[in-house]
Amino acid sequence: MNCKHITYRLLILPILLFSVYVHAQSEVSAKVDAKKIAIGDQVKLFIEAKPDADEQLVWATLPDTFNNLEVVEKGKIDTVNTNGIITYKQKLLVTGWDSGMFQIPSFEFTANPKQGTPYKIATDSFDILVQTIPVDTTKPFKPIVDIMEVEMTWEDYLWYIVGAIVAIGLIIFLIYYFKKNKGNKKPVLKPKGPTETPNQEALRLLNELAEKQLWQNDKIKEYYVELTGILRNYIEARFKTSVMELTSDELLEVISRNSKMAVHREQLATVLRIADMAKFAKAKPLPQEHTDAFDKTKDFVLNTKPVEIDNTKKQA
Prior knowledge:
Layout: H1 3-23, E1 27-32, E2 36-38, E3 42-50, E4 55-58, E5 65-66, E6 69-74, E7 78-82, E8 85-96, E9 100-104, E10 108-113, E11 119-122, E12 126-131, H2 158-181, H3 198-212, H4 220-239, H5 248-257, H6 259-262, H7 265-280, H8 287-303, H9 311-315
Parallel strand pairs: 2-12
Antiparallel strand pairs: 1-3, 3-8, 4-10, 5-6, 6-8, 7-8, 9-12, 10-11
Helix pairs in contact: 3-4, 3-8, 4-7, 5-7, 7-8
């Protein structure tokens, strides 16, 4: 191999590596359906994100107001799968109440590669012209019409009279009914059902949480407050240790010291990390992270169920 071929390969190798690196990045974009509106009209802002398969993408924080513009509605984050490529989409309605040229800013997303340093990627910004409603000054102003009084007849009060008669009759019937049946009823004792085990209670509460669809309706913080509350209550009831007032780090220390919980430490650390980001950093985890946190919590409850001993076999 001559020197020319060696030099050529040394030059082309960094270019190929750079191309692979660029291709592996996540992508975000934004677009609007109008750049000029009248005061009070709305602009539709569409945000899309395509996370790379080897990265986790933290959704951008979207404020309610920016640069004299106001977000009047935030749609939920939808997921679209096209030939195996996952795209996340969100629609916002933006309006302005003052005239002038205002800007919809760029929004920053955080990409966390499985290997490598987290980095920021941002959408484009857009200038929006908000105009006043044009007034034709050539036409004369019309005076305000005075309030016109309408004469009332007895027929206008007919339904009020009928409603009053029905209400009085209903009150008289209820008084008669309760006086007649007072003291005849005996208290009904409801049989006590079997007491739930900590595992059964936790699984029931997790199923109820799933049915509420909190994160699907953009109630991210409420979802994680309830999910971590179920987890902490279960640990207290199942392992007889007080953890409700502990921080996430202190809770993980307790989990590490218990041989039955220690094997699940990593999956619980992931649940608590995502929950803390959503509750305190106001981050918006992706839908796959919501379901992952739920599944890890449910697996922990299922895998730490006490082993039941069959007393009949023991006596035999």
